[in-house]
Amino acid sequence: MTLSAIWRAWRNFWFEPSGTSSIGLYRILFGLLVLQVGLIHLSGHFEEWYGPDSMVTLPTVVNHFWFNEPRFDLFLLFPQTNPSFTFLYVVFIVAAACLCLGLFSNYSALAVWLILLSMHHQNPYNINGGDAFLRAVAPLLALSHCGDRFSLDALIAKKMGRSASIPSQRNPWAQRMIQVQLALVYWQTFCCKISGEQWLDGTAIYYATRLDDMIRFPAPFITDNWLLLKALDYFTLMIEFLAWNAIFIKECRYYILAGLLFLHLGIDYLINLPVFEWAFIFTLVTFIEPTDLDSLILHLLKKVRCVRKRYETTETIGASADSSLSCLE
Amino acid sequence: MGNFSAWSGRSILSGWPIGNQGRGLPLEAALSVAITVYLFFTVTWLSPESPTRTRILEPIKQFWLFWGLDQNWRLFSPVIKDINFHTMAVMTFEDGYRMSWELPRMKRLNFVERFRDEKYRKWCVDSLPWPDYKEFWPDFARYAGRKFYNKDNKPVSISLQLFWIEIPKPDDKSFVPVASLPEHTKMNTVLYYRYRSEDLPPDLHPDLKEDRR
Asked: Does residue B9 carry a pLDDT above 70?
């Protein structure tokens, strides 16, 4: 191996132009999750969590969490009144909606990040790992070419006759950073899991499925089957191990993605942790090769067209039958 | 500009002029340095505690924390809780009336409420009753005092109680089915707070009333 070979491999990974459909789709899914946080979990309670009369007051947070050191908090730039926080909430929702629609995509991602960061610094005690992951990924999304596909930005560019200036392939370094960020999550959680006893002796899933305040749907066929609980424990360790190394090998990638999808859907079914599982499931999309995603979308569009054609034909036949009937009458 | 790349032909945030196609060597070199530095410190941040780790992170710690770049993904690890618990606040009023307020207890909520109110569980049940968060107990007491304030029968004190029970240990021969988990029968009072006049809502504060007169 030579230095130039290492540099070539590095450049290929980070800078070799690639399609933008995966990151475009991820932008939509990411925006939907942020909207879920805003509209379902914070709607009507934003001031209660972050406002001046919050149950967690800022001076205590500054002492307990900031250690009396500076932190980025956009909310401090506004008067500490409930209307200011209502305004910030509206900005948050609008930014998330714009991100979903792909309008001012990069700026929307930036705004979403800054508000998520401010929320985290204003009150860090009501979030789970999913919220933290959104906050970690948002700046990377803002730096990516997330608005090139499936976006109003692209549509406007087309209307303005500038679509030809958008290359079909782009430098993917920011998308790669998102992939690496996800791999780092699995790396740390795997290392922590194998340093504890419960995961190694196979009782971890037993305990996780018996946290009674977190049970989502009862599933005794899983939770009361000792062998299955053990098998799921070791499956989790195995798939989380592969998720930070073998996932970057093209030949294994889709198998590992399927395994991770199974893992996260399973947790989501059993344990009530909104945002958490879907933040990770959606990020798996960034690992799909853009060419594969394009083929899949094309295939789905063809199917839809086929169904529509069939429907139109049936309708025409129906209409002609109707008109024949009315003629007869 | 919006998605700058799409509208204006130039990506500002993504830092890449269109048509360059990722082949600008100086920019690639600069980005490579930035990526390497970021990943080096992030991996160090995620590594187990050690004196070397502390020494490496010391110079960038302030910057990292300011921009919220700190991370921790110890998801369900290294140890999963082996107890079940819930919290309840008991508020006493001037006339001796005692009101108990069960903080969102997921087990008793329906699917939609559980999904919507998860943030309350995270704060009021998962964090608040534990000693690491005792600095927030007076804040919580004042919040509850304002929430249930009645000017004709003012709250006098509040206590926060933690009800809990161990999850029975399993072995290869026997384990407890989810439907037969034991009730939370053990209890600790983690907070007792006696209200002072300044804890009352400002517009109803007796001193302020005096001022207004």
From this structure: no
3-state secondary structure of B15: coil
B63 touching A (Cβ < 8 Å): no
Q: Which two tokens stand for residue A234?
A: 């070791």
Contacts of B120 in chain A (CB under 8 A): 126
| B46/B57 Cα distance (integer angstroms) | 11
Reported in sequence order, the residue ranges of B123-196 that DSSP labels E, i.e. its strands, are 155-166, 186-194
C-beta separation of B153 from B95 below 8 A: yes
Interface of B with A in 148-177 (CB under 8 A): 167, 170, 172, 175-177
Report in angstroms the alpha-carbon separations of A260 from A136, A184, A199, A255, B79.
Answer: 20, 15, 17, 9, 21
Which amino acid type is present at position B3? N
Inter-residue contact B2 to A162 (CB < 8 Å)? no
**Which residues in chain B have their CB less than 8 angstroms from residue A14's CB?**
28, 31-32, 35
Lookup: tokens for A255:
């198998």
E strand or H helix at B10: strand B10-11
pLDDT band for position A127 (50/70/90)? very high
Scanning B182-201 for CB atoms below 8 A from A yields none
Residue B172: the pLDDT is 74
User: What is the Cα–Cα distance from A211 to A209, expressed in whole angstroms?
Assistant: 6
pLDDT at B14 over 80: no
The distance from CA A52 to its chain's CA centroid, rounded to whole angstroms, is 31
What's the complex ipTM? 0.90
| Closest residue in B to A210 (Cα–Cα) | B178
